[in-house]
Amino acid sequence: MPGMGRALQTGNPTIVSSFHSALLHQLLIILLVAAVCAIGFNVVRTLQWRRLKEHGHRSFPSPARATTPEPLARRVARIGFAGLWILDGLLQIQSGMPLGLTSGVVQPAAATSPSWVQHLVNSGVTIWSDHPVEAAAAAVWIQLGIGIWLLVAPRGRWSRLAGLASIGWGLVVWVFGEAFGAIFAPGLTWMFGAPGAVLFYCFGGLLVALPEHAFSSPRLGRIIVRTGGIFLLGMAVLQAWPGRGYWQGRNGNLSAMVQTMAQTSQPHVLSSWLGSFGAFVQSHGWGVNLFVVIALAGVGVLLLSGRRNLVLGGLVAFVVLSLADWVLVEDLGFLGGVGTDPNSMIPMALVLVIGYLAMVRLPVPLTVGEEATEETATAVRGAPDTGPGSAIEGATEGARGAATSGGWWDRVTLSYLLRSVAAVAALAIVLVGAAPMAMASVSRNADPILTEALDGTPNAVDTPAPPFTLTDQYGQAVSLSQLRGHVVALTFLDPVCTVDCPLIAQEFRQADQRLGEQSRHVDFVAVVANPIYRSMSFTNAFDQQEGLTQLPNWYYLTGSLSALQRVWDEYGVEVSTIANGAMVAHSDLAFVIDRQGHQRDAFITDPGPTPVFASSFSSLLVSQIDQLLNT
Amino acid sequence: MRLQRRKRSAASCVCAIGLALSFLALLTAVGTGGANAATDLPLTAAIETHADSWAVLPMGQFGSLVNTFWQLLHAAPGSSDWVVVTPEGVADNGGLVAAAGLTTASTMVGFLPSQLLRYSPLSVTTDAGRTWSPAFIPGALAARPNGLASGPGDSLAIVGAAVLHRPSNSPTWSRLVTLATLRRFAPQCAAAALDAVAVTSTDAALVGAACRGRFGLFTASSGKWQLNGATLPGDWRGANTTILRLQAGDTEATALATATREGHQALFALSQAGSGTWQVSAPLSIAADSRVRATAVDFGGALSVLVGSKESESVAEITPSGTWVTLPAPPRGALGLAWVRPDMTSSAATSLDAFTVVDGTNLHVFTLPPGGGKWVAAQTLQVPLPYGSSS
Questions:
Q1: Are A581 and B115 a contacting pair at CB < 8 A?
Q2: How confident is the model at residue B380, as a pLDDT?
Q3: Which residue of A14, A309, B193, B236 could cross-link B210, Cys pair, CB 3.0 to 4.6 Å?
């Protein structure tokens, strides 16, 4: 029956199964790529060994000496954000992601933002909603790929590229997934995660992408720490700003947030903590906000002081405060089935820790002749191709100096080769996710899986289509037998329907357009499905309304009530009037009839709650018609 | 040197903090936008003919437009009972507009566009709503209580910026006049929208339009349209006006107009005997937090309005002398009014009925007997609604 507004639940088995299947297929491709990389590694190593032997060497080039190890701050940034990306990628595997992410995470995040933000976010939501399986799978592999890439490429160009990839994907997620971290929303507050967790991932990526010499002085660390201080002072001002709903306990924003988070599906111990904290906020909201304002301002001032001990004190206080907020307000961030990341507190604290380390733990150059430790040697092995000014330039030169002839086989160490191949494999993981998504996103038509998830797969049949003769929109008699030789897409539409029929008509129109030249062999036929409003005036008005008057292969058929009733009965279409203001209820059905007049597919055409499903249905209809045209 | 550097550092720090605070203030300002209050004309309306009374009112979930189903009620003269006679076959969650011929038994109802339906199917009854026949009009009816009108023979309808006309002997509608034409004939009015139509007992057309400085009431004479609406009284001179109701009776026409100026709003009742000029009543001021919720017109020229705010409702009636009298406060939550005549021939005073809707589907009718007194519960109707059928 039309207009029942059925929506897909996040756990829809068709979508979940398709998502898992896509992940499995992509995993197999990744394993294949990994195998190819392993073979490539062995081939290059064998070639290298042969060349080395030709030049009289008995071993692979040994690790060179490093002048400096990888700066500790950079390493913490690289490994820390790699871990976060990997965690996020794993969270994206949750089965609710394909259908739940947009409605459960993205749209609520944008709901209170200005309309231009919502408009921008909706463009991303549309792509995700049109292709939920490809999009969700892409998010998994891109995030896992970036995380692995950051881990396996410690230094050099590959490493900096990983940082840039982190920035790029982070910005995509920050804009389209987090609606700019809600910074344009009226309730902006540090406590709820402003300015968005992924913005810190971008910041982490930026630190990895910077040239290593940026870490050679405390300047970078000071900038990070001071920026953090200014940010926290600003957040304290916002938190203290009257009229924003944070000073009152009962019915205030904070208690509402805590109560909302307490309702998330989670272990009892967490929900009970949240419940207790929520009750505390309700009764002491003013005091809690005062504490937060003072704490944020205090930490901000300490970070701005620039004095090492004061900064350290501020940092410790901030970490404690962040952890408290993470548990008691953000509820760890990733619970509930569509949590995509651990929210902003962990990455924010990580950035400030990195800033502190960049300020106080500068890389110490190794003395000339000193053997590289395993750690520094690893770093050197990873980056023999760095340019002038690199922290390990000397090491590369050292390696070059050790070589007897200038060939690549003399310079490339085994571990460098291994890390390069691993970085290529990590990039391949990113591309395995991104490529299908990129291809899907350029298509304006939604994936047919949505229609199948909503209405079931088309029911394949092979029976003679019941004949009929009715009157088309021009007053001409049209019989099904007349259309023999063409594939016929048949449906039943109410010309005064307010919801489904216009959408189904658009599905047919889209299918006609998408068939292109092939549509010359296809007729799109609708039979009136309203026992009262069935005259040609109404079919013509409907055609005009839906822009169908220009389609030469479109027939909107009507007839006497008895003639229509016979067709409805023979095709199993139920039509009934409902009193007191409802539209006529009728089955949403469509049939594809082959050139010989045999019914081949029966579809449910409920267009679903959004236009996405109409687009998805046209994809399905085209594929079924296409099969019949080509058999 | 060190001192200078410190000063520079402190200055840059202050600048950075200033910038950050400015940014935050900007963000705060961005996030505190206000929404404009929506204004609309009440579709909830009632008409009385020689034969019976009709009322259009919404029921269902008022917070959800798709689940607000409009109902057409009918009361035969002499009967104290209202019957739901909503025509079937089209979802009416866009609203209904009813037009009853004053002396004929034909009543026409138009379904306003809703959701993806962008034109207005019509339905016609000649047996007080027991059976209905579909009728067609090309386009979408205006959402105005008198956007559709029936006369002894002809019918009129406002579709977009045009008034369509259908003679009694034809199923097709043709254009009678457009808003642009009215503007040309009466530039002093600066007609902004077509508001209402009526057909007189001699099948002459009356058209009401939103106007400035005058009441926009137009009639055609020798193929030319003329503005014969009165000017506004002193305090309201220059106000913008709309024609909320326009009803032609046996010998006189009645109109209800709004005038708006500088945030103040008032209602005026207008009456026209024969083809003479329109007589304007005293203004009935509407409080800023109130709006006209429903209107009812009697074929004899009686007119009542239900004005409501969040807190209260009041009913006012125009007297023959052109002044407004406030009637006893209607039942809490009243959303509709209708005049009911005791019998077809009686010229006795009519009673006024008020409607309330409880839980969306329970319709309660209260009667205010002629001569005032207090509202008395008269009838309860349970109207099952097809929630979700059009969402």
A1: no
A2: 96
A3: B193
Q: Which amino acid is at A548?
A: L
Interface test with B, best of A253, A305, A498 (most B CBs within 10 A): A498
Q: How far apart are CA A433 and CA A516, in angstroms?
A: 31
Which of B90, B122, B357, B382 is the best substitution to test chain A (most A C-beta atoms within 10 A)?
B90
Write the residue in A233, A496, A580 that is nearest to B385 by C-beta: A580
- φ/ψ (deg, to 5) at A100: -95, -20
Structure token digits, residue A243: 């009229």
In this prediction the pTM is: 0.70
What is the pLDDT, as a whole number, of residue A168? 96
Could you tell me which residues come within 8 angstroms of residue B53 by beta carbon, excluding any fewer than 6 positions away? B46, B47, B74, B75, B77, B338, B339, B340, B341
Say if the Cβ atoms of A499 and B390 lie within 8 Å.
yes
Q: How far apart are CA B2 and CA B255, in angstroms?
A: 85
* H or E element that contains A255: helix A253-262
Confidence at residue B111, expressed as pLDDT on a 0 to 100 scale: 97
Residues on chain B touching A537 (C-beta within 8 angstroms):
136
pLDDT in tens, A575-610: 999 999 989 999 999 999 999 999 998 988 887 767
Per-residue b or e along A416-455, where b marks 16 or more CB atoms closer than 10 Å to that residue's CB:
bbbbbbbbbbbbbbbbbbbebbeebbeeebbbbbbbbbbb
End-to-end CA distance of chain A: 33
Distance of CA A111 to the CA centre of its chain: 18
Contact A497 B88 (CB under 8 A): no
Q: Say which residue the tokens 């329970």 belong to.
A: B362
Q: In angstroms, rounded to a whole number, what is the distance separating the alpha carbons of residues A76 and A356? A: 11
In three-state form (DSSP H/G/I as H, E/B as E, the rest C), the secondary structure along B210-245 is EEECECEEEEEECCEEEECCCECCHHHCCCEEEEEE
Residue B175, pLDDT above cutoff 80: yes
**For position A63, what pLDDT does the model report?**
67
Burial class (CB in 10 A: 0-12, 13-18, 19+), B171: exposed
Segment A417-437, tens digit of pLDDT: 888 899 999 999 999 999 988
Is the C-alpha dihedral spanning B310, B312, B317, B318 positive or negative?
Answer: negative
What residues of A are in the B interface, CB distance below 8 Å?
Answer: 3-5, 112, 114, 183-188, 226, 230-231, 233-234, 237-238, 241, 244, 304, 496-499, 502-503, 530-533, 535, 537-538, 541, 545, 577-585
List of chain A residues with pLDDT < 70: 1-7, 63-67, 333, 335-338, 365-406, 609, 611
Give the pLDDT of residue B210. 96
Out of B28, B71, B91, the one facing A498 most closely (by C-beta) is: B91
Write down the pLDDT at residue A376. Answer: 40
Q: Which residue from B179, B204, B215, B177 is spatially nearest to B194, judged by alpha carbons?
A: B179
Of A189, A223, A230, A583, which to mutate for an interface test with B (greatest number of B Cβ within 10 Å)? A583
Name the residue facing B70 among A3, A530, A581 (closest C-beta): A581
Token readout for B384 is 């099952």
Separation of alpha carbons A198 and A333, rounded Å? 13
Q: A498 and B93 in contact by Cβ < 8 A?
A: yes
What residue ranges in A256-347 does DSSP mark as E strands?
A: none
How many whole angstroms separate alpha carbon A294 and alpha carbon A289? 9
Q: In this structure, are residues B129 and B104 in contact, taking their beta carbons and an 8 Å threshold? A: no
Q: Give the N- to C-terminal CA distance of chain B in Å, as an integer.
A: 74
A chain contacts of residue B21, beta-carbon cutoff 8 Å? 234, 237
Neighbours of B177 (CB within 10 A): 21
Query: Which residues, at least 6 apart from A439, have a Cβ–Cβ distance to it below 8 Å?
Result: none
Bridge partners (DSSP) of residue B165 are B156, B174
